[in-house]
Amino acid sequence: MAEGNEIYGILRGFASEFGFSGPPGLDLPGLDMARIAEGYGVPGRRVDTGEELAAELAEVSADRGPRLIEVPITTETRPLG
What we know:
Elements: H1 9-17, H2 33-39, E1 44-46, H3 50-58, E2 68-70
Parallel strand pairs: 1-2
């Protein structure tokens, strides 16, 4: 099963709240968000550590335009309400 950035977590959460188990099409393994951003002309980079994130954020300035920083997350599904 995909985790973190590789699933539609919110949709999976809604599905479980309504009693659906294993709805199709919610796993998105192998997405490279940085490459997708670059395809739209936006510089992108994936960071895997806090140090990499801090270094990337230190390089950000308002006059350089948009950029994407992909930060992997851990999946956590909580009951709604």
